[in-house]
Write a structure and sequence with these properties.
The structure holds two protein chains of two kinds. Helices cover 0% and strands 58% of the residues of chain A. Chain A is mostly beta strands. In chain A, strands 2, 4, 5, 6, 9, 10 and 11 form a seven-stranded mixed β-sheet that branches. A four-stranded antiparallel β-sheet of chain A has the order 1-3-8-7, with no helix packed on it. Chain B contains no helices and twelve strands. Chain B has strands at residues 3-6, 11-14, 19-21, 23-26, 32-38, 44-50, 56-59, 62-65, 75-77, 86-93, 101-102, 106-111. In chain B, strands 2, 5, 6, 10, 11 and 12 form a six-stranded mixed β-sheet that branches. Chain B starts with a strand and ends with a strand. The chains are: A mainly beta, B mainly beta.
């Protein structure tokens, strides 16, 4: 398994509170991604990073922000959590500069917003 | 935009049965195609991939062939085991570094 960890693994929070999820990798991959998984939708991209301090939006980025200050860490912040953000969040890593189009996923964080 | 469509589950099978999960896609150009598997409580694992037309990806007894003419990438396994019970996702990417576009997932339950 690729060296990807996510923390926390489970979180329950209240509507309106900020939440930060962390993804940590030990593979030194340049690209990192945040997806959310919802029934019937598969996984959808929230934000991604193509290098330290280089990030861009995905298809469902509203209400989320990200930061990447080091190669190994990619943070996802829900600025003011809403019930529609109850989901399972997956981090992924990739190394396209090495010619690979594969992405490898972390174990996920289950977030419940009450 | 790009999209992936999978057959809806759940698919319930007996052990040693033949499994097929249909996947079709809509995309311009020549995407790479993937199957990921998610076991209960875990993240997604890359099962197999194909990068060009007529390529066959295979792993752990699973196979899928990239059919450009029918825009399909159906997953097959000849004899399933209880341990194959999982959710299977078909996905595509247009280029390395780009996002993965996923289908909705198909839950497979194999009974002894």
């Amino acid at each position: 398994d690729a060296g990807i960890t996510q923390s926390p693994r489970h979180k329950v929070t209240e509507t309106g509170t900020p939440v930060t999820l962390r993804c940590h990798q030990t593979e030194n991959h340049r690209y990192m991604y945040w997806y959310r998984q919802d029934p019937g939708h598969g996984l959808r991209l929230i934000h991604y990073s193509y290098g330290v301090k280089d990030t861009d939006k995905g298809e469902v980025s509203d209400g989320y922000s990200v930061s990447r200050s080091k190669t190994e860490d990619f943070l996802l912040t829900l600025e003011s959590a809403t019930s529609s953000q109850t989901s399972v969040y997956f981090c992924a890593i990739g190394a396209p500069t090495s010619g690979s189009d594969e992405q490898y996923f972390g174990p996920g964080t289950r977030l419940t917003v009450t | 935009g790009d999209s992936v469509t999978q057959m809806e589950g759940p698919v319930t099978l007996s052990e040693e049965a033949f499994l097929t999960i249909n996947c079709t896609y809509t995309a311009t150009g020549y995407p790479s195609l993937f199957w990921y598997v998610q076991y209960p409580g875990e993240g997604l694992q890359l099962l197999l991939k194909a990068t060009k037309a007529d390529d066959k990806g295979s792993n752990k007894g699973f196979e899928a062939t990239y059919r450009k003419e029918t825009t399909s990438f159906h997953l097959e396994k000849g004899s399933v085991q209880v341990s194959d019970s999982a959710v299977y996702f078909c996905a595509l990417t247009k280029a390395a570094g780009n996002k993965l576009t996923f289908g909705g997932g198909t839950r497979v339950l194999v009974k002894p």
